[in-house]
Specification:
By secondary structure, the protein is of the alpha/beta class. Strand 6, helix 8 (about 190-205) and strand 7 (about 210) form a beta-alpha-beta unit. The chain is built from 13 helices and eleven strands. Mean pLDDT is about 85; it is low at about 15-50. The protein folds into two domains: about 5-155 and about 280-345, Bordetella uptake gene, domain 1 (D-Maltodextrin-Binding Protein, domain 2); about 155-280, D-Maltodextrin-Binding Protein, domain 2 (3-Layer(aba) Sandwich). Helix 4 packs across helix 11 (about 290-305) and helix 6 packs parallel to helix 13 (about 325-345). Strands 1, 2, 3, 4, 5, 6, 7, 8, 9, 10 and 11 form an eleven-stranded mixed beta sheet that branches.
């Protein structure tokens, strides 16, 4: 299992006190794991008392991220973390738990105390694992409480500069001329990039090799290095390297062109009408987290994603900052699971 990577974000103006709290939490998290029965209350145990609910947050918040540092999830966590710290008045510890396509992070969150101090930054793979894998250690719908859909963001299909393709049509022709040879990286099985590839292959009649990584950062680095030839990468992480000329963009997976790249066509207008794939990032907490705490967490997340600085940083890169209600996010999770289950079954995709 990968070693957890932790980073504490202290409230502005309260750095000294917060750092002490964060350090204590980091030390606790890095301590050897105790047996499951001694580590957390059994399912069905009593949730936080009314006094605990009123006191929330009474200690640092733990944001579990299901990927390695450097990818889109890490970027979202680092941008939202300070805003969430300011909104809650408590430092936020970002706890990277990559591996098993996010299931390590998901299981850890599901088994955490449902008091609102631990939550997961989930992405598309969160609800898709139940279709991809025969054994998943949690149910993404029944064992979690939705907090808010924070960000929706398209992917950009990019290739290594050495690939002889400047358009989507060029890439399709290249893939058909050499079936099963083009290697396409992704942030992991069930990630938005993987699903974008699966749908693209279905519609284009091409056969490419899917190469999953433990996060978008390592996947994008592999394409830049030329070991893999292409990737459907989240726009907010691919923008800088596109501008630097490290990769060549072919198309965006949203139905509309991006304001930042008005000359970049959509996949839909490149011969595959109606093609649309968007990645998303949202927050969920363990089931049985008190409703009052969920509402306060939701308010903090909504306040965070609506900060002008976040709107400017991410909105200019094609992201839509949402900040939904818990109910709307819960409905969205169910619809995403149903939508992509159909694509996965038709493509015959299995991760194990």
């Amino acid at each position: 299992m990968d070693q957890p990577r932790l980073r504490a974000i202290a409230p502005r103006g309260a750095a000294a006190a917060a750092c002490g709290l964060a350090a204590a939490l980091v030390a606790a998290l890095m301590a050897p794991a105790m047996p499951a029965r001694a580590q957390a209350p059994a399912k069905g145990a009593a949730t936080a008392t009314a006094a605990d609910e009123r006191a929330w947050p009474s200690r640092p918040l733990r944001m579990i991220v299901a990927s390695a540092p450097g990818g889109p999830s890490d970027l979202i966590a680092r941008l939202v973390g300070p805003q969430l710290t300011d909104a809650s008045g408590q430092p936020v510890v970002i706890d990277h738990r990559s591996g098993a396509n996010g299931m390590i992070a998901g299981e850890l969150t599901a088994k955490s105390e449902p008091d609102g101090h631990t939550f997961l930054l989930a992405n598309a793979g969160f609800v898709i694992n139940s279709v991809l894998y025969s054994k998943v250690p949690y149910d993404p719908i029944r064992e979690f409480t939705p907090i808010s859909l924070a960000v929706s963001v398209p992917n950009i299909l990019v290739v290594h500069p050495g690939v002889q393709a400047k358009t989507v049509a060029d890439l399709v022709a290249l893939a058909k001329a050499k079936p099963g040879t083009l290697a396409v990286a992704s942030a992991g099985s069930g990630s938005s990039g993987h699903l974008a590839l699966a749908l693209f292959q279905q519609l284009s009649g091409t056969e490419m090799i899917h190469v999953p990584f433990k996060g978008g950062g390592p996947a994008l680095a592999d394409v830049m290095g030329g070991q893999t030839q292409a990737i459907f990468s989240i726009s907010v992480t691919s923008f800088p390297i596109i501008k630097a000329g490290r990769v060549r963009p072919l198309a965006v997976t949203s139905l509309k062109r991006l304001a930042a790249f008005p000359d970049l066509p959509t996949v839909s207008e490149s011969g595959f009408k109606g093609y649309e794939v968007t990645g998303w990032f949202g927050f969920v907490a363990p089931v049985k987290t008190p409703r009052s705490v969920v509402q306060r967490l939701n308010a903090a997340v909504v306040q965070s994603v609506r900060m002008p600085e976040l709107q400017e940083r991410l909105g200019n890169q094609g992201a839509e900052l949402i900040g939904s209600t818990p109910e709307a996010f819960g409905a969205y999770l169910k619809s995403e699971q149903a939508k992509w289950a159909k694509v996965i079954r038709q493509a015959g995709i299995k991760a194990d």
